[in-house]
């Protein structure tokens, strides 16, 4: 039987960061070389967010990432999406990496929701024409209406999450990485998000989901990874991982 080929691999990946370091949207537009230089220059009070992580992800995987707050889940997502580069180890992807739901972390809050759609689209590697073709879909799905023209700093946390979800799931790609995908508001909007996720699952080669909800992991995923203090405690079936995690 032919062995499955990994589409994304991490080998002995460690990521250290300075406590004072922040990642604004502006900084993310620096070249990879400039980002790595900036990380090296802020070398005091370094902590390890990921510690010798080795994982392989395969086409058809829908992987749930679980762990307590501070376990390294969001950091892992940022490495997988190319937002952060490992301090040590190797990261390799053979397919296009897509949206990262934690885009909301990188919104420029003084700008309007519309401006942030353009910025987020550029961050995801989309050209202006591609972004403009998705604007109506993003605004309609997020249900922000006229608020899309207002500064993001005036939004509630639910509005910010809805905008991030709409952006992340409108720009389709081979791999979708989503962080706390369903923490986006009321029951009605949650159901709407689950429906869209069902559509995306059919079209994507690989989906990685971070969630604190066991039911969401069981509903969507066929594999799970348990992170603790930046290390992989278990990589296995959903039932095995959730039993250890609970």
UniProtKB/TrEMBL annotation:
Example GO molecular function: ATP hydrolysis activity
Coiled-coil intervals, chain numbering: none
InterPro entries attached to this UniProt entry: AAA+_ATPase, ABC_transporter-like_ATP-bd, ABC_transpr_TagH-like, Bact_Polysacc_Export_ATP-bd, P-loop_NTPase
Keywords, sorted A to Z: ATP-binding, Nucleotide-binding, Transport
PROSITE patterns for the chain: ABC_TRANSPORTER_2
Span of domain ABC transporter: 34-246
GO cellular component: membrane
Protein family (similarity comment): Belongs to the ABC transporter superfamily.
Protein name, as recorded: ABC transporter domain-containing protein
């Amino acid at each position: 039987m032919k062995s499955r080929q990994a589409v994304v691999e991490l080998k002995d990946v460690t990521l250290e960061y300075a406590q004072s370091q922040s990642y604004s949207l502006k900084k993310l537009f620096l070249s990879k070389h400039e980002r790595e230089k900036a990380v090296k220059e802020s070398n005091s009070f370094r902590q390890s967010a990921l510690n010798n992580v080795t994982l392989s992800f395969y086409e058809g995987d829908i992987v749930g990432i679980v762990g307590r707050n501070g376990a390294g889940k969001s950091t892992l997502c940022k490495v997988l999406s190319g937002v952060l580069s490992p301090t040590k180890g190797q990261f390799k992807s053979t397919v296009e990496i897509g949206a990262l739901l934690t885009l909301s972390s990188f919104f420029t809050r003084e700008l309007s929701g519309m401006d942030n759609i353009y910025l987020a689209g550029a961050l995801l590697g989309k050209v202006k024409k591609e972004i403009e073709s998705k604007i109506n879909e993003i605004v309609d799905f997020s249900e922000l209406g006229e608020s899309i023209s207002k500064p993001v700093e005036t939004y509630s946390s639910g509005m910010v999450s809805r905008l991030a979800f709409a952006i992340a799931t409108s720009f389709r790609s081979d791999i979708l990485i989503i962080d706390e995908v369903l923490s986006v508001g009321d029951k009605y909007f949650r159901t709407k998000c689950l429906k869209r996720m069902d559509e995306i699952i059919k079209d994507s080669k690989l989906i990685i989901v971070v969630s604190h909800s066991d039911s969401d992991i069981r509903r969507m995923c066929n594999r799970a990874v348990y992170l603790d203090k930046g290390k992989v405690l278990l990589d296995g079936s959903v039932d095995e991982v959730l039993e250890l995690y609970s």
